[in-house]
Automatic annotation (TrEMBL):
This is Core-binding (CB) domain-containing protein. GO terms for biological process: DNA integration. Keywords: DNA-binding. It holds the Pfam family Phage_int_SAM_1. Residues 22-108 form the Core-binding (CB) domain. InterPro entries: CB, Integrase_recombinase_N, Integrase_SAM-like_N. SUPFAM superfamilies: lambda integrase-like, N-terminal domain. The keyword Cell membrane does not apply. The keyword DNA-binding applies. GO terms for molecular function: DNA binding.
Length: 167
């Protein structure tokens, strides 16, 4: 793992999101071409975009306050997510932790990943408990509702039930 970290530091600025920086992947001589290709495709493009924005927010926060972003201390991440929780939803905070964790993992800090420790996990649990994470969806359509709507359905052909235009 030390060699992976050396490759990381030779090719990257800590501000970069590791999975976006192709030099990091390309310069790792231990990876086969197939492995390099798969590593670049390990996350969906939209996920990478969100993670990259989340990482840059964390990096800027660390820079502003004089903390090291990579590798980060668990206390740094806890302070960051508690600051973030003042204005963000619990799911946003959770996604930010995922982005920070992914960047540490891809940068060679999987075993020393500060996001996996109890300090960060407990802080996230407290934020989820305080803010709640329940997504409020619409009420389900009940059988009674269908009975009320049944006069508006053409039931003569069960295979092609369509809503009558009088609805």
């Amino acid at each position: 793992m030390i060699q992976l970290r050396e490759v990381f530091y030779q090719t990257m600025d800590n501000k970069d999101f590791v999975l976006r920086k192709s030099n990091f992947i390309e310069n790792n001589e231990k990876l086969s071409e197939k492995s390099k290709k798969r590593m670049r495709k390990s996350k969906a493009e939209n996920t990478l975009r969100a993670y990259e924005a989340d990482w840059l927010d964390f990096y800027d926060w660390c820079t502003h306050l004089g903390f090291q972003a990579l590798p980060a201390e668990p206390e740094t991440i806890e302070n960051y997510i508690n600051d973030l929780a003042d204005n963000a939803k619990a799911n946003t905070v959770s996604r930010r932790i995922s982005a920070i964790s992914e960047n540490h993992k891809a940068g060679g800090y999987e075993d020393d990943n500060p996001c996996r420790g109890g300090l960060v996990r407990n802080a996230l649990d407290a934020i989820k408990r305080e803010k709640g994470t329940i997504q409020r969806g619409k009420s389900p359509l009940l059988f009674e509702d269908l009975q009320d709507l049944s006069p508006y359905f053409d039931t003569s052909d069960i295979a092609g039930i369509e809503i009558k235009r009088s609805c």
